């Protein structure tokens, strides 16, 4: 059995992910952590008996320095961010997290963090990578005028933005009257499907990273 840590933004996808995996004997939801100010996913996790808490970078800055983020110099921010990531890794190690799954988690993970969880960090992204990485990938796709969009689940191995080896992808057609909201709704369904499947494959030790490729055994 793997202990699953879910790193969320607001956690809108967490309920569906939980429903898809809750009865899987190979997976235990160990902890849910959000870096946002408010996250309904934290309440959902607690209501379902999962440890959950906020761990905000801006709070970390203020706790350590007494300053807001806009008051800090670039060098101070970098050092504090490394310290924040180290503390986050400590929290996950204490809980023996075997897989860290990021959904809506906006912070780029530093290499020092990733070295402590080699091949154990996944992210779900709302585009067909390597196209449209970064923020609001589905909006980028719509604005660009492509005919299909989609979602990707990938490993996170370094600090590159959405650059890790791809595990699963699935496309959806963009209709002529598509809006950002309607496309986002389509992709929510795809993300839930791909995310749960990727976690199940990992739990069964069926994923093997070979350079840029992920082989499903």
From TrEMBL:
Listed pathway(s): Purine metabolism; IMP biosynthesis via de novo pathway; N(2)-formyl-N(1)-(5-phospho-D-ribosyl)glycinamide from N(1)-(5-phospho-D-ribosyl)glycinamide (10-formyl THF route): step 1/1
Domain of life of the source: Bacteria
GO terms classed as biological process: 'de novo' IMP biosynthetic process
Presence of the UniProt keyword Transferase in the record: yes
Keywords assigned: Purine biosynthesis, Transferase
SUPFAM superfamilies from the UniProt entry: Formyltransferase
Enzyme Commission designation: 2.1.2.2
Record-level GO cellular component terms: cytosol
Keyword check for Transferase: yes
Pfam families in the cross-refs: Formyl_trans_N
Any one GO molecular function term: phosphoribosylglycinamide formyltransferase activity
Ranges of residues in domain Formyl transferase N-terminal: 3-194
Entry protein name: phosphoribosylglycinamide formyltransferase 1
Source organism per UniProt: Candidatus Azambacteria bacterium RIFCSPLOWO2_02_FULL_44_14
């Amino acid at each position: 059995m793997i202990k699953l840590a879910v790193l969320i933004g607001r956690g809108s996808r967490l309920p569906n992910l939980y429903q898809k995996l809750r009865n899987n004997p190979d997976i235990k939801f160990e902890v849910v952590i959000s870096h946002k100010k408010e996250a309904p996913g934290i309440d959902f996790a607690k209501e379902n008996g999962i440890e959950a808490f906020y761990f905000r970078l801006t709070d970390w800055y203020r706790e350590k320095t007494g300053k807001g983020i806009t008051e800090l110099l670039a060098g101070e921010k970098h050092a504090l961010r490394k310290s924040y990531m180290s503390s986050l890794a400590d929290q996950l190690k204490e809980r023996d997290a075997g897989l860290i799954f990021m959904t809506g988690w906006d912070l780029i993970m530093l290499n020092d963090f990733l070295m402590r969880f080699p091949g154990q960090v996944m992210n779900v992204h709302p585009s067909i990578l390597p196209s449209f990485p970064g923020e609001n990938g589905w909006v980028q796709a719509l604005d660009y005028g492509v005919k299909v969009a989609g979602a990707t689940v990938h490993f996170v191995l370094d600090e590159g933005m959405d650059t890790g080896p791809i595990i699963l992808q699935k496309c959806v057609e963009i209709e002529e009257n598509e809006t950002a909201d309607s496309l986002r709704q389509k992709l929510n369904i795809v993300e839930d499907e791909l995310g749960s499947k990727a976690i199940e494959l990992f739990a069964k030790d069926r994923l093997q990273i070979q350079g840029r490729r992920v082989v499903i055994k």
